[in-house]
Amino acid sequence: MIRMGLILTDSSIWDVNIAYNILGDGNPDLRNIGANSLCMWEAIKFASTVTHKFDFEGSMIESVERFFRAFGARQMPYFQVSKINSPFIKIYQDVRSWGGMLRQFVRNKS
After folding, report:
1. Helix, coil or strand: residue 8
2. Would you tell me which of 10, 73, 84, 90 could form a disulfide with 24, CB atoms 3.0–4.6 Å apart?
């Protein structure tokens, strides 16, 4: 019988300002022995030699968020940009835009 060994990954990218944790995964059988925590800790230690901040990139999964917070991560809001190809939303956005221009025009005339 052949048994597979330890498999953990943690990938980070960085620039002069910040390191980003873009991928982390591990063998589910190793979660109870702290292997994932050790891998993350080593990534943070390495990042501290090349930059001053470490961005965990967050998660919507509660257990992952708890894991990151255990390392001192703080929740930060982020913005999302998306494109919606809907004629109804386009009309709504146009009407709102025209309303803003009309209000500004009336203020300038007063």
Report:
1. strand
2. 10
Domain 8-82 has CATH 1.10.1670.10: no
CA distances from 42 to 2, 49, 88, 98 (A): 29, 11, 50, 54
* Residue 41 zone, left/alpha/beta (φ > 0; ψ -120 to 50; rest): alpha
- Cα 104 from Cα 100, distance rounded (Å): 6
Kindly list the domain boundaries of the chain, sorted by start residue: 8-82
6 has pLDDT over 60: no
pLDDT digits (tens, 9 = 90+) for 11-62: 788 888 898 888 777 777 777 788 788 888 888 899 899 998 998 887 888 8
CA torsion 27-30-34-38 (nearest 10°) is -40
Q: Are 42 and 21 in contact (CB under 8 A)?
A: no
